[in-house]
Design brief:
The protein is α+β, with helices and mostly antiparallel strands and 77 residues long. It is 40% helix and 17% strand. β1 and β2 (40-46) form a beta hairpin.
Length: 77
Amino acid sequence: MIAREKTVNNYIDAYNNFDIERLLENLDVNIRFENISNGVTNMTVQGLTSFKEQAEQVKNLFITRTQTIKSWTHQDN
């Protein structure tokens, strides 16, 4: 469980600090990312290269951004 939490914390910290390279460290090359807002999928990105390009494009839309973990629930797989 500690390894999972460390991986997620690294991602969140990188996200909050606009550190794209560190954001990518623990992601699979075949990542599928979906942005869902109000129950509607408004963006889908497939693959690490596309994810990186999207992350670079949107990082300038924010002055600050914060994701916060409120609790943990671990399940198999």
